[in-house]
Amino acid sequence: MNSVFRASSAPIWLGVAALALWSQAALAQPKPVQTQPVRPAPAQPAAPANTAEPDVAYAAFQRGLYLTAFREATKRVDEKNDPKAMTLLGELYADGLGVPNDDKKANDWYKLAAARGDREAIFALAMFRLTGRAGPADRNEGAKLLAEAAKLGHAIAAYDLALLYLEGQLLPQDFTRAAELMKMASNAGNPQAQYALATFYKEGRGVKMDALEATRLLAAAARSGYTDAEVEYAITLFNGIVMKNGTVVVKKDQRAAGELLLKAAKKNSAPAQSRLALMYATGQGIKADPVQAARWHMIAKAGGSNDQYLEDFVAKMSPSDRTAAEDKAKPWIARMPQRGPSPFDQPAPSTAQQPAKTETFKPAEPVKP
User: Fold this and answer.
1) Global pTM?
2) Contact, 173 vs 167, CB < 8 A?
3) Which of 51, 276, 287, 320 could serve as a FRET partner for 13 with CA atoms 20 to 30 Å apart?
């Protein structure tokens, strides 16, 4: 069977705007007071610039010693009026790390640090204004603060601001400006921005269409472990890219595609699971294995991604192979949030006591995973 992998049908830019401010979603929920846990905070402020003396407060924060971080940051503010220490105190109060959560105190510390030009504090204030923490929401002020932080080189601020330009509600829709901001964040190594910018180059939206640059950015984001990029880059490797003039932009490498899809599938990416199932079913780029094909299809279906060819493939399996696939799929599905219909609600497979219904096997042409 000649299976062709296709990228997601919906352009990334349509969905990405809805993910605005993803990086600071934790700010919307106060965290319980923690005494001295030995684990890193979920969102860490940037490391201070190289100075002649070590930053004991930040080092303690990285180690999860939040009470020590609080004491040392307070001392640093008292002795040196240090904006980085002010930002750190704001972070501790915002997340309730070592001290009770107090959005007002967090906001006050962020404002003091922001007034001294600290971009992390400016970004944190933007999140507070956009989400309505420590006071009424003010999206216009939040956007202005994002722009200020982005101008100072804050990568996530640039990414979030680009999403606002894509959304076209708070700011006028401007794909060119969004692409410029995505480039800024991408150059700083932000994988989400690399993934979004890859789509811009792929579609010629805000930038000149460039398949080679799109692939380079997808590969960079995939290397960072960004799941959506792993899936899209795997599809690119599976198919390869050859220009009309015969120039090979991406050499086909189905084995590498399978490795990437397996990584993404293990992180509960339903599209990756479905495509991996197709590879096992057809033996393209991976050794054919009908049990693994059915197993990953069942998992993908429970995650909300279905494929008619695989449905027919599973229906045609022997009862023993289907049972083996179900036994492998059930523990996985039991641990995941189920978004699609249960793959086990189908009629029972054929047995000696219950003959199976006669079905015609018609593979999809072409398969569109």
Assistant:
1) 0.76
2) yes
3) 276
